[in-house]
Amino acid sequence: MTSAEFNKEYNLQDINAKWFVVEEVKEKDDVQVVGKASTMSKDIFKRFFSNKWNWLFLSIVLIILALTIIVPLVSRYSELDPISKTKSNDIRLLQPTWAGNQTKVFLISIPEWNNGHGASLPFDTNNIESVSVIQSTGQVKVTVLNTLVKSHNIILGTDEVGRDVWTRLWIGTAWSLKLALLVAITETIIGVAIGVWIGFHVGKATDTIVMRIIEIFKSTPVLLWMILFATILGTGFWSIALVLILVGWTGPIWAARLFTLKVKDRDFILAAEVTGVTKFGRIYKHILPNIMGRLMVSFVLRVPAVIFFEATLIFLGMSVGAEGAATLGNLIQTGRSHILEQVYYVLGPVIVILLLTISLQNLANGLRDAFDPKISG
Prior knowledge:
The chain is mainly alpha-helical. The protein contains 15 helices and three strands. The protein folds into two domains: 56-75 and 158-375, MetI-like fold; 88-151, no CATH class.
């Protein structure tokens, strides 16, 4: 059998044409796949918002910021005045309006009850719900229905003076956030300017002197410095801001110096030096932009730290802000003595501080991962 007969018998020609066809490839001269260039800022933005937790914690912070602006503007109550001009006993430590019918308990001596039954008592006798005698203390326990609370929109009740806790909470949050941002921004600017410079000149006299000063400063507990500076400078807004800056200035310097040490000998810095870039340019135009992400993380973490320090000063017995001013620390300090009577008084500022701290901590981690994905997780 010849090859032609064999191919015809087994249909090899059709099989070869079907299975082993070499498709023509059209040559494309000078063709490139071109797309829109992705910038560094876009990549950081995409990495940050690709994490659903970053969305959640950012939303919490934005909601808190919005409430600090909106609530004081729309509230019918002020920061310093009671919700009503009636007797203080009628409006102090009221429960929230959404908690149902409210009652107040009065403890009155038996002689006062017997002799003063009527107008001299600190409540309307028509609203009495129950009366009982406490034999062990010789007092009469009178439970009175508080009808005043129904005429006021008090979301978190009132404080010991009769002021609206909800309004004071967000005014206090705004006060504490303004203080925290002012201190954190000032510390970061000072710390970065000095830290990057001494990090570039590591081992030189300037670096040695600054680091020895920082070590001496950090060898003393922070609380002692806070008490000392607050005693000297006072506890007004600007005074307490200066106190916290003097206490926290070492942290940003230390961080900026450390990050500078990690990049100052990289190839792109050496290349900049070879091409004639000045020392100032290498430090602030090449090194600083490359460590800005980590410095932003440090900045975000400074905000809850400042709020914590402000609250610490108050717990140490120092009055922060003006007389009767609402700050988160002041609200917690005054509210804790009435926690059994009006738990929402202290619960509000505690929850706000907790949410701010957790949210900013996680946002800082999200920023770290977005700026430097190699260290994520």
